[in-house]
């Protein structure tokens, strides 16, 4: 007598998605509890511990329950674009869960709490928090969010799990390059590089006279290109050239693709310095600093040395989308200054880095495409050219599909930028200030003309929140997630009607 063994079906669909989200929910709960370590050094903040314990423990419990859907079971493959649904959902979960401590404190409503945590997770740095009246516990909470937002939730999850959970989630979160053939080892290498740079930054800051707590806050803020500070006047508070230089170096490091970091640390300097984004970045910096310095000398009568120092810091802060400042305000500056800063913010940082913006690689490809096209007009149409650019590992051919992808993304990005700027201008702000503020939110920069603050209208903060969220996850991922949810929703409704 033959006995047929029925193999259990692999977990698929939304049961699989909920299981993944359960794991991420536990992770987010743990992140919410991490700032409580600060109480060992600042026990006077102990009365606020309950604001973190409640949401952190509940998130871990709920996540554990959902994780049981897939625990110990064979997992199937995700359907097309379901990876995008997981990534978008887990970022929304992270934003809401970590917003609860702010709401439970009684000082922030839902809108302001979500704005603050979206700014943290997206490594933007726009803030509604008055840091002069905020405890060490909440300041560390913001920086903890910055730390994990910089490398990404999926990288954190993959670093402690097996390779089963795969490359598609890794790619969907914006990590285009693997440092090693194994995606899990790549995630762990990213964390090691990230942590070592932050540790080095803390040590250097302390050597230059910065208090240890401030050093931790600013090292995380600079490398994550997040820009959260515990000082109302940001880096300007310290009046130190050495601290500014350390901050600029950390901001540039945070702006560079993690794969390029690996080549740099391995001593493969040719690969590093030939990389198209590295060269493009330094060309932009070298071009913008003298112009900004001239504008400061000409319009504000600064001495040349002071104007060059201010220009260097502001240009690097804008291009790396960090948002630290050494200028007290952007009010009263000429339109030409604001235009250059807006352009730098929109270009943003490197692909696969902690920075935001359109990304230097896409802009570089489009610049090269224009040059190639103009050159082709002066050559015989019978001649065929192979167009290549330097990537980190080698010089690679650029296909027309990649150029189309870059141009499409830039077009969508600029459309969102113009629409967001228009909406802000409807509240009575000048178009210049509205464009500066929304480019800062969309490119996850954090520099501000003062439009988005604690007393701003809820609608203004939600416009900023939307910009930061879409800018961090990049437009394609959000669109793919929405289209997948729409398709699955229609399929579910159709099934119900048939039943």
TrEMBL record:
InterPro entries membership: Cat_transpt
GO BP, sorted A to Z: metal ion transport
Claim: Transmembrane helix is one of the keywords in the record: yes
Entry-linked Pfam families: TrkH
Annotated keywords: Cell membrane, Ion transport, Membrane, Transmembrane, Transmembrane helix, Transport
GO cellular component, one term: plasma membrane
Compartments it resides in: Cell membrane
Transmembrane segments: 20-43, 49-70, 82-104, 145-166, 187-213, 245-265, 272-297, 337-358, 403-429, 459-483
Membrane topology: Multi-pass membrane protein
Molecular functions per Gene Ontology: monoatomic cation transmembrane transporter activity
Main location as per UniProt: membrane
Family: Belongs to the TrkH potassium transport family.
Name of the molecule in the record: Trk system potassium uptake protein TrkH
Species of provenance: Longicatena caecimuris
């Amino acid at each position: 007598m033959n006995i047929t063994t029925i193999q259990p079906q692999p977990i698929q669909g939304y049961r699989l998605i909920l299981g993944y989200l359960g794991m991420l929910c536990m992770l987010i709960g743990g992140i919410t509890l991490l700032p409580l370590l600060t109480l060992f050094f600042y026990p006077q903040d102990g009365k606020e511990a309950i604001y973190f314990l409640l949401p952190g423990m509940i998130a871990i419990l709920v996540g554990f329950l959902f994780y049981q859907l897939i625990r110990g079971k064979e997992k199937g493959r995700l359907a097309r674009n379901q990876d995008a649904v997981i990534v978008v959902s887990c970022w929304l979960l992270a934003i809401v869960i970590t917003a609860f401590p702010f709401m439970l404190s009684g000082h922030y409503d839902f809108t302001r709490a979500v704005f603050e945590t979206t700014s943290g997770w997206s490594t933007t740095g726009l803030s509604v928090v008055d840091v002069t009246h905020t405890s060490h516990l909440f300041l560390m909470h913001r920086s903890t969010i910055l730390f994990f937002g910089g490398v990404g939730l999926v990288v954190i999850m993959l670093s402690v799990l097996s390779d089963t959970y795969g490359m598609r989630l890794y790619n969907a979160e914006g990590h285009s390059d693997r440092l090693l053939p194994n995606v899990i080892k790549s995630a762990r290498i990213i964390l090691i590089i990230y942590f070592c740079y932050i540790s080095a930054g803390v040590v250097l800051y302390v050597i230059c006279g910065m208090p240890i707590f401030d050093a931790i806050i600013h090292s995380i803020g600079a490398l994550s290109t997040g820009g959260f500070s515990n000082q109302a006047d940001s880096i300007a508070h310290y009046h130190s050239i050495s601290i500014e230089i350390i901050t600029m170096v950390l901001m540039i490091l945070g702006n560079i693709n993690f794969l390029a970091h690996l080549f740099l640390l391995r001593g493969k300097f040719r690969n590093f310095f030939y990389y198209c984004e590295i060269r493009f970045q330094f060309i932009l910096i070298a071009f913008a600093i003298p112009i900004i310095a001239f504008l400061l000398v000409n319009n504000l009568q600064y001495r040349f040395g002071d104007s060059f120092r201010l220009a260097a810091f502001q240009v690097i802060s804008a291009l790396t989308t960090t948002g630290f400042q050494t200028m007290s305000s952007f009010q009263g500056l000429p339109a030409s200054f604001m235009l250059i800063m807006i352009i730098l913010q929109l270009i943003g940082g490197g692909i696969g880095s902690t920075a935001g913006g359109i990304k230097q690689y896409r802009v570089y490809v489009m610049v090269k495409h224009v040059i190639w096209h103009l050159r082709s007009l002066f050559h015989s149409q019978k001649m065929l050219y192979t167009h290549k650019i330097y990537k980190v590992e080698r010089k690679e051919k650029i296909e027309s599909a990649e150029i189309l992808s870059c141009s499409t993304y830039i077009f969508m990005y600029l459309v969102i930028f113009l629409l967001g700027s228009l909406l802000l201008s409807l509240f009575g702000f000048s178009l210049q200030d509205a464009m500066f503020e929304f480019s800062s939110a969309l490119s996850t920069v954090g520099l501000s003309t003062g439009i988005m603050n604690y007393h701003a209208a809820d609608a203004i903060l939600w416009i900023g929140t939307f910009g930061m969220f879409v800018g961090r996850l990049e437009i394609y991922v959000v669109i793919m997630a929405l289209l997948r949810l729409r398709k699955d929703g229609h399929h579910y409704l159709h099934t119900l009607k048939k039943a």
